[in-house]
Amino acid sequence: MTLILDYDAGNLGSVRRACAEVGLAAEFSCDPSAIVQAERIIFPGVGAAGSAMRSLRERGLDDALKAAIASGIPVLGICLGMQVSLDYSEENDTQTLGLLGGRVQRFKLNQPELKIPHMGWNEVRVTQAHPVLAGIEPGDEFYFVHGYYPNPTDVTHALAVTTYEGDFTCALGKANYIGTQFHPEKSGRVGLRLFENFARWDGVWNGSQISTQAQVDGNAQ
Q1: Measured between alpha carbons, how far is residue 212 from residues 127, 161, 194, 209, 215 in Å?
Q2: Disulfide: which of 35, 52, 138, 165 matches 64 by Cβ 3.0-4.6 Å?
């Protein structure tokens, strides 16, 4: 069974509907013992990093997620779920889960025509092959709603970039974990393709040679 992590961070219904569209049976759970026994885990979220981390810790889901990662269960983080998977978020000065190294940073807003949150459709450019991103083509757009973006410590964990106030990493992964800043559940057919891929993924990924495009550090400049 695929479990969708329920920690009062919203957006769960649209994630389950997307799973149903691709034939992936998924249920909500806030039970740490169920999380560590799941076949795969979806870790979604909207809201603020500070309140998300409080909820995860109060429920014991922080340790459950770490145990699930250690056991090799495939995990998909989405938006806030992806952000709190890194080490630290500038939002509320929050120490986060540390499932992979990096910081979540606020857009600098050096361009007055840009607004926060970054909201709408943007092209996602895959820079490193990954089974969950298979079939995403140049020009494919996903839906974003966020004011902060991930900056992974290790460039080999960066899988895709998009542009808003410069290029930034919008998908990252390590071993059996993959996370996206965009919302595949709100991204139509191309988003459903990502869920289809995740439904088939066995959680094995050792990285691949980084393309020239991925040599950018993923920071918004």
Answers
A1: 8, 12, 24, 9, 5
A2: 35
